[in-house]
Amino acid sequence: MKYDFTELIDRHGKDAMAVDAVGKLPGFAPSKPKEGFDTIPMWVADMNFPTAKSIQEAIIKRAQLPLFGYFQPSDAYYQAIIDWHKRIRFN
Questions:
Q1: Which domain holds residue 83?
Q2: What is the pLDDT of residue 44?
Q3: Would residue 1 count as lying in a domain?
Q4: pLDDT at position 6
């Protein structure tokens, strides 16, 4: 699956800590940059790219079930992770 990393989403005003909390939450968000510098939100777990459609669809499908809680990982769960690692190349 190809993914488009060129589409950027403006996250200002959408409660994104990496953007809206800069300089406001010491210890949780970056400090405000020095005068003349721009904020560049480069958090690993909070990217400014859209989530892949397959992930959105899987979350929606799961959220339609009425119960949330812990689950016991099955062999199929672990095999899916193993297969994914075999298919993806990190260069």
A1: 17-87
A2: 65
A3: no
A4: 83
d(CA 11, CA 76): 36
d(C-alpha 18, C-alpha 2), whole Å: 26
- Domain annotation covers residue 78: yes
pLDDT reported for residue 25:
82
**What is the mean pLDDT for each group of 10 consecutive residues in the chain (91 residues)?**
77 84 82 87 72 90 91 93 84 50
Q: Please return the burial class of 86, using the count of CB atoms within 10 Å of its CB with bins 0-12, 13-18 and 19+.
A: exposed
CA distance 27 to 7: 30
Query: Is 8 among the domain residues?
Result: no
- Count of the separate structural domains present in the chain: 1
